[in-house]
From TrEMBL, chain B:
InterPro entries: eIF3i, WD40/YVTN_repeat-like_dom_sf, WD40_repeat_CS, WD40_repeat_dom_sf, WD40_rpt. SMART domains: WD40. The gene is TIF34. It comes from the Eukaryota. Pfam families: EIF3I. Component of the eukaryotic translation initiation factor 3 (eIF-3) complex, which is involved in protein synthesis of a specialized repertoire of mRNAs and, together with other initiation factors, stimulates binding of mRNA and methionyl-tRNAi to the 40S ribosome. The eIF-3 complex specifically targets and initiates translation of a subset of mRNAs involved in cell proliferation. It is found in: Cytoplasm. Keywords: Cytoplasm, Initiation factor, Protein biosynthesis, Repeat, WD repeat. One of its GO terms (molecular function) is translation initiation factor activity. One of its GO terms (biological process) is formation of cytoplasmic translation initiation complex. This is Eukaryotic translation initiation factor 3 subunit I. It comes from Morchella conica CCBAS932. SUPFAM superfamilies: WD40 repeat-like.
Length: 147, 335, 693
């Protein structure tokens, strides 16, 4: 009986032990699972961060590319103006197309003025030269008539 | 100076007149209809129907009561301005080319065409300025042009003279009471090349401006027929007007349709030209018509003008500030 | 100075006096008398001898009546007066004497002049000659001195002649202002007017012939009785004139005394005249058997024949015409005999041109005139361009050409280059194209440079006194197309090299234009490219070949060219038919002549850069021609000195111009003041009078 009791107790103890063990096992299993999930989450977050960063970099590159194109475009336009006015090429950000067009117009206007001025001087010179020739010619005209 | 375009006529304009107040504008064209307009906005006030032929001429008495018109149907008609009713009709053997009320409205002169054996004449009727009145049937007197027919005519101040402009470029002065010829001058080129196309009096009727096919316009003293000013253009002129307030004249003309061989608008020089009345310089042009300018009238207060063209349009212009500001240095000095 | 428009006795300027000559004046009985002038002055005792000698001479053309030579003595000196009256048996003989013996030398010192007594009477009657007998020469020496008086105008202005309606007027150009009339006459000409090449004479053309006018009084200088003359051409130095009529001259069987032409002229179309004496040198018939014999050749503007037919060498020594397919006939002046007594045989010859200047004598050889001609392909021989020296007739250069449909010969104004425009066809003859062959005449062995083109050249022009040229090309017109094909303008200049003139390089082409005409300034540098005689476009483009601004890049290659091209201005002149530069290259007139159409007749005046200075519409406007100027009398050195001191002159001119502008301004203001005062005074009076009435 005592044995029986002992046996029964032992069985109980065994059972309890078993229960305890399985509980422990279960708990460990659960913990492991939790860890795994956390790790997974962390990895995903990291990936997202990296992706985000990459996207950002890409955008930045694109923006820079565009800026470069714009600058080149402006520069080209400026070159066409035969750069009379010195423009700070570094400060191109401050310029837009409209301003450039206005500059272009001003430039054309200026060229026209300059041409008109040059031609005015040319005209005056050919007129004066003709008059000077004639003034001298008149002096020798009587001699010519004697011939 | 954005013009108001009056679209009411279907054919070329022949004459435009402002009334004395300048609020109304009357126009005649070859389409048998007389139109009346509000000059301020170009709204049409009404039309006068009754003539059976192209209208050549219109005038309004100083009180804006009666309207006189002359037409190719060989009649002069007197109209009630307000109702549009025809009050009187005088018949002639030929077309009536020009009518004009005297300064006081008591006399009406009319120039008739020479055609089919009939000589050109100028007739003067007494007028009672009253829509109820019965107008006389017979003229006071008739002047018959044996040499060159008159094309236009006008009254001087105080009805003292009648001035006629002729087909051969001459200008004559007749006694306004008796119709006797006092004197004449060859004001423009002799022959049809110098035909006088318009005569308009200055506001006080002491001098007038002529327009001629010889491409010039002249200002002439009504008393002694002395040519005071000459304006030289590069196109035959159909009309000339004097501007009150400013010392300008406005001239209109253009190569006639049959002489213009291309459709180009610049060809015909269809512009109203402004000249300085005293200095005889051209000072500006106003474009817009698609055909020769046939008639120009200036607002009696000098605030604007209207032009009627071969193209069938009337263009009413109100002068803006730069017009009134324009002066020559000498004018400012002597102001 | 020059008189203003005069409607004096010269207004009716026809040939009425000639007509009078035709009238037989038998009653006067003086038609057989001549006056012999220019005889030696001898004492009384030698008079008989002289009369005998003279009689012998004068008998060569007709019978002199016995004792009919009268040689008056001067009462004071008891010597002869140097002239004689002579009576022939018939008026015809007297006339023959005038024609044939006038101007012949009597001895080494004396040349006689013979005129009909009736002529002298005639002149005397008109009051031209005061005394009964004075120097009968119509053209006294003194008068000749004034022929260039217009050159002494102090403000360096230029004249032009304008023919409109029935009036011909000569005017001073005053830029923006109304031209100042010099002379203006009704019916001065019947068909057109023309200046002589150096501007000395103004030519008028009438049914009875051609007249020259000049001098400050614009008197008639000479007339050439060529009935129904259509066209006129002068020798470059104004010594000779050629007149042409499509109608062969017909001489009546018994010409009345004084009839200006002799039987030799019967059936002739061309007459070559000596301008100074008025003598007829020789007449010719047209070679093209009167093909042009209709009325269409009335005016220059409508000429149908390739004028001039007789072409002059630059020194007036030779005049030549082509006998198509056979020869070139070269005549020597003033004898008008064939050079070397025969024509220069050139089988197939189509056309020829004289070099416009005598090449400078290089080395020992005496400088000669040069002409060039071309012959087409024939008898298994290629087409060929030949340069020949005259009078030696040495061939200095030939060049063979293949597939040639036509050639045009363009000399540069100094004879430095010859451009032969060769219109070629492809082997299949389906399409044509042009090549330009440049002969560098002044260089050793006359090298030839070629510009090959894919299109045809419709117009080519050398820069006067320059090394540049412009031409206009076009594709062939599409059959049945209503609009002319687009044109391209090409500007060429030589490459800049250290010595000499480099290869001709394309400076610029302007594509898709309508332009068809090239007008170089007579001084070079500026060129006006225009579209004339067109219904649709009327473009005028003013180009500068030496723009003084930033250097423009030439179109081809990386070469430096002797040009800096710039479009100075572009404009239009509706209906433009004619373009004329003034002789100084400062102004250019574009005009619309009623000979072409009647729309907007008149002229526009521009400065060299295309600024419109003035426009005038003139009904029935026909011609505007600038008066040419003779070559400058200043030596190269003198010109150089002037250029060097231009700044000094410029200062004076600026001062003068400013002063003049101020004066003009002041005058305008004064005039306006006066006008204003007068008007206001008149108004005041009139208004007062009006109130009183």
């Amino acid at each position: 009986k005592e044995h029986e009791e002992a046996l029964a107790r032992r069985t109980i103890i065994e059972k309890k032990k078993e229960a305890a063990e399985s509980a422990l096992l279960k708990k460990e299993k659960e913990e492991a699972q939790q860890r795994m999930i956390r790790a997974e989450e962390a990895r995903a977050a990291e990936a997202a961060r990296v992706a985000e960063q990459q996207k950002k970099r890409e955008l930045e590159r694109l923006r820079q590319e565009q800026e470069k194109i714009r600058k080149e475009e402006l520069k080209k336009q400026l070159d066409e103006l035969s750069l009379d006015t010195k423009i700070d090429v570094e400060n191109l950000e401050d310029l837009d197309s409209n301003q450039l067009r206005a500059m272009k117009l001003a430039q054309l206007e200026k060229e026209k003025r300059e041409m008109a001025d040059k031609l005015r001087i040319t005209g005056k010179r050919i007129d004066h030269l003709e008059r000077a020739y004639r003034r001298e010619e008149v002096k020798i005209l009587p001699q010519d008539l004697e011939r | 100076m954005r013009p108001i375009l009056l679209q009411g006529h279907e054919r070329s304009l022949t004459q435009i007149k402002y009334n004395k107040d300048g609020d109304l504008l009357f126009s005649t064209a070859k389409d048998h209809v007389i139109c009346a307009w509000y000059s301020v906005n170009g709204e049409r006030l009404g039309t006068y129907h009754g003539h059976q032929g192209a209208l050549w001429t219109v005038d309004i008495d100083p009180t804006s009561t009666l309207l006189a018109t002359g037409a190719a149907d060989n009649t002069i008609k007197i109209w009630d301005v307000k109702t549009g009713k025809s009050l009187k009709t005088w018949d002639f053997p030929t077309a009536v080319k020009r009518v004009e009320f005297s300064e006081d409205g008591t006399l009406l002169l009319a120039v008739t065409e020479a055609r089919m054996g009939f000589l050109g004449t100028l007739v003067v009727f007494p007028i009672i300025v009253d829509v109820e009145a019965q107008q006389a049937d017979a003229p006071l007197f008739t002047i018959t042009f044996r040499e060159s027919k008159a094309t236009v005519a006008a009254w001087s101040y105080l009805n003292k003279y009648i001035i006629t402009g002729h087909e051969d470029g001459s200008v004559s002065q007749y006694d306004g009471k008796s119709g006797e010829l006092i004197q004449d001058i060859q004001a423009h080129e002799i022959g049809t090349a110098g035909q006088i196309t318009d005569i308009q009096m200055a506001p006080d009727r002491t001098y007038f401006v002529t327009a001629s096919k010889d491409k010039t316009a002249k200002i002439i003293d009504v008393d002694n027929l002395k040519v005071l000013k000459t304006f030289v253009t590069d196109t035959p002129l159909n009309t000339a007007a004097l501007t009150p307030k400013k010392d300008f004249v406005i001239l209109g003309g253009g190569q006639e349709a049959r002489d213009v061989t291309t459709t180009s608008q610049r060809q015909g020089k269809f512009e109203a030209r402004f000249y300085h009345k005293i200095f005889e310089d051209e000072i500006g042009r106003v474009r817009g018509h698609f055909g020769p300018l046939n008639t120009i009238a200036v607002h009696p207060q000098g605030t604007g003008y209207a032009s009627g063209g071969e193209d069938g349009y009337v263009r009413v212009h109100h002068f803006d500030k730069p017009y009134f500001d324009f002066t020559y240095e000498v004018e400012r000095m002597k102001a | 100075m020059a008189p203003h428009s005069s409607f004096d006795d010269d207004e009716d300027i026809d040939f009425s006096d000639l007509r009078e000559q035709f009238e037989v004046r038998l009653d006067e009985g003086l038609d057989a008398f001549v006056v012999v002038d220019g005889c030696p002055v001898v004492p009384e005792e030698n008079r008989g001898k002289l009369i005998k000698f003279l009689s012998k001479k004068l008998s060569e053309v007709g019978k002199i009546k016995a004792d009919s030579v009268t040689m008056p003595l001067n009462a004071e000196t008891n010597k002869t007066e140097g002239y004689a009256f002579v009576e022939y048996e018939t008026p015809e003989q007297a006339l023959a004497a005038c024609k044939q013996l006038s101007g012949i030398p009597l001895d080494r010192k004396h040349t006689i002049a013979i005129n009909k007594l009736t002529d002298i009477e005639h002149f005397g009657r008109e009051g031209r000659i005061k005394e009964e007998y004075v120097e009968p020469e119509i053209e006294p020496y003194v008068e000749r001195e004034h022929f260039r008086s217009w050159l002494s105008e102090p403000n360096a202005r230029d004249q032009f002649v304008m023919y409109r309606g029935e009036s011909v007027g000569v005017f001073w150009n005053r830029k923006k202002d109304q031209p100042e009339p010099v002379v203006d006459r009704q019916h001065w000409t019947e068909s057109f007017v023309q200046w002589s090449p150096q501007g000395t004479y103004l030519t008028s053309v009438h049914a009875q012939g051609v007249q020259l006018w000049g001098g400050p009084s614009w008197k008639r200088v000479m007339r050439f009785a060529h009935p129904a003359a259509n066209l006129v051409d002068f020798s470059p130095n104004e010594n000779y004139i050629v007149t042409w009529s499509n109608r062969p001259i017909s001489i009546p069987e018994n010409p009345p005394p004084g009839f200006p032409l002799s039987a030799d002229e019967d059936g002739k179309n061309f007459i070559v005249w000596d301008i100074k004496t008025g003598n007829l040198l020789r007449s010719f018939t047209s070679l093209e058997a009167a093909n042009d014999a209709d009325e269409g050749v009335k005016a220059l503007g409508r000429k149908k024949i390739n004028w001039p037919v007789f072409k002059w060498s630059s020194d007036d020594k030779y005049v030549a015409r082509v006998l198509p397919g056979q020869a070139i006939q070269i005549y020597e002046t003033p004898s008008m005999m064939l050079l070397g007594k025969k024509a220069v045989k050139v089988e197939g010859v189509v056309d020829f041109e004289w070099s416009p200047s005598i090449p400078e004598g290089k080395g020992k050889s005496k400088p000669e005139q040069m002409l060039t001609y071309w012959t087409p392909e024939m008898n298994n021989q290629t087409a060929r361009v030949t340069l020949m020296n005259i009078p030696s007739q040495t061939i200095v250069r030939t060049r063979n050409l293949v597939n040639v449909s036509d050639c045009k010969l363009h000399w540069q104004s100094e004879g430095k280059y010859l451009c032969v425009k060769v219109d070629r066809h492809t082997k299949t003859k389906k399409s044509t194209f042009t090549s330009l062959e440049f002969f560098r005449v002044k260089e050793k062995n006359i090298p030839v440079e070629i510009v090959e083109l894919k299109q045809t050249v419709i117009n080519f022009a050398w820069e006067p006194k320059g090394d540049r040229f412009v031409f206009i090309t076009t594709d062939e017109a599409v059959q049945g197309a209503t609009v002319a094909p687009k044109t391209n303008i090409a500007f060429y200049a030589p490459e800049k090299i250290k010595n000499g003139v480099g290869e001709f390089c394309l400076v610029k082409t302007v594509e898709k234009k309508n332009s068809n005409a090239i007008y170089w300034s007579p001084k070079g540098r500026f060129v006006l490219i225009a579209t004339v005689h067109s219904q649709q476009s009327f473009d005028l483009e003013f180009w500068d070949c030496e723009f003084e601004g930033e250097k423009q890049k030439p179109e081809t290659k990386n070469k430096e060219v002797a040009a800096n091209l710039m479009l100075m201005g572009a404009s239009e002149h509706y209906g433009v038919t004619d373009v004329e530069w003034d002789p100084t290259g400062r102004y250019v007139a574009t005009s619309v002549s009623m000979w072409r159409h009647t729309m907007e007749n008149g002229y526009h005046l521009w400065d060299f850069k295309g600024t419109l200075l003035r426009e005038e519409h003139i009904d029935r406007f026909k011609q505007l021609l600038w008066r040419p100027r003779p070559p400058t009398m200043l030596s190269k050195e003198e010109q150089k000195t002037i250029r060097k001191n231009l700044r000094e002159y410029s200062r004076q001119f600026d001062e003068e111009d400013t002063f003049e502008a101020e004066t003009a301004n002041r005058e305008v203001v004064e005039a306006r003041k006066r006008q204003l005062d007068e008007w206001r005074a008149w108004r005041e009076r009139v208004e007062k009078d009006l109130k009183a009435q």
